[in-house]
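Comment on this:
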Amino acid sequence: MHAYRSHHCGALRQSEVGEAVRLSGWVHRKRDHGGLLFIDLRDHHGLTQLVVEPEMGFFADVEAVRQESVIRVEGKVVARDAEVINPNLPTGEIEIRISSFEVLSTADELPLPVFGEPDYPEDIRMTYRYLDLRRETLHANIMLRAAVTTEIRRGMERQGFTDFQTPILTASSPEGARDFLVPSRLHPGKFYALPQAPQIFKQLIMVSGFDRYYQIAPCFRDEDARADRSAGEFYQLDMEMSFVEREDVFEAVGTMTHDVFAKFAGERSVSSYPFIKIPFDESMQKYGTDKPDLRCPIVMQTVSDHFRGAGFKVFTSILDADPAHEIRAIPAPGGGSRAFCDRMNSWAQKQGLPGMGYMIFAEGEAKGPLAKNIGPERSAAVREQLGMKAGDAAFFLAGKPEDFLAVAAKARVLIGEEMELTDKDSFALAWIIDFPMYEWDEENKKVEFGHNPFSMPQGGLDALNAAKTDADYLALKAFQYDLVCNGYELGSGAIRNHRPDIMYKAFEIAGYGAEVVEDKFGGMLNAFKYGAPPHGGCALGLERIVMLLADQENIREVTMFPMNQQAEDLLLGAPAEPNPQQLKETHIRVAPQITEKKA
């Protein structure tokens, strides 16, 4: 028999009754029932119940052992009595009456419990992450992540993709976040950067003549943590394809993503394949965001014309002040109560807006101050456009859309949840397409890249050359796309700009001369001058996929050793001050932190 176990703690069934077995694992919990002592023994695979009888010579030792101590036992598999079978446990029909007992490792008093999984402060959970990972839910989440990763790899390789590794020590890249810098010992005063993404390398792989690349890639970005974004580092499915158009990427990624979600969704439904495609402008119009939660059926509409010249002076003056101003309506089916409308109005004020006007639709005329001010005819027109019936309501926001759309998007989701319109047991996936090539930089009063400077503009060089004004530039679209699910951006990608002449022109429009392009992106630009295939791809966030499948709201719940919200590793103590020898070898002097004096 093996030194530590003949079976793992999730293996034994009725078929092993009568067998002598040896098990090792952690003491999950103990229970004393009228002299008999019961132990739930746990390992990676599951739980097995042990029974210790008082006449056993080691009974006192078992009684004294602490939870989470590691023990080894031998004993006989016996069938449980019918009334004590545990149908929720795979090993629930049997137990082990142990004949020998040994403590392999003693546990000190626990700083957080493993059994029961109560909420505990983040600093304790991060400091003792190895204990946190023993808890059932988190352990299952990490195993789900491993299974999802395996399925992603299978899905990519079935479609002819090859796993290539790209460098970790590299140069700064234009991904939009702060780099992590690594000092060079051999080159004083110079630094490597950890890759924000393998973007440039994967495009160079295509230029090098490889056809389909993928990688579960580590990415490093010095940015603040939030619920759906890790501090410092994360992993993504990175992929690229040569000689493809947008639909080819959608087919490769969509097929794999659908299969992964379908396999791990359990009882939840998954959008049918192929996923719907929503243009960016339409998404912003209907949902107020480029990552809509399509489980909520509410669609916003522009209703400006019903308020022009109407009796509600607040909205009229807003519309008259600027042609870019709009009135947007958010339908609220079933929300036609004064209490609900007042609650939503108060919520909007807490979000930083003056509030939200509303109409309540009854059997006759619409009710509320807004309806009263614009009159029954206009109120009826609003009702007809929105398709409202008695018992419904609608909320209204006015001004420049970019100033209120973020709140409107949240309001839409909140109304859907409050009115129980949102299908919580589903995964609603969609492609958001036709992103703007450029956007307006209000701070610098100039046109700037909207998403990814290496995306191919729709219409190519001809479209760039035809555009003459800022308005023309802002109207240009890129072959840029995002995959979204349940209000989260799962991934982003593009058909790449593989032609130097188009790249020079695209950067020129954004105010960057040829010398800037050659200085910042010379490696890739020079490669393109030696024959680059048309290519495209995308990257999907691994943690976000697993977070959704695990029904978690925080990405740390699907990450084995995450940092805390302050980007600190409390387990190993990072970041830490370097010692003088390390500073000397890397030619670095740490400047004292300067604190500003208060006036």
In short: Residues 169 and 194 are 5 Å apart (CA to CA).
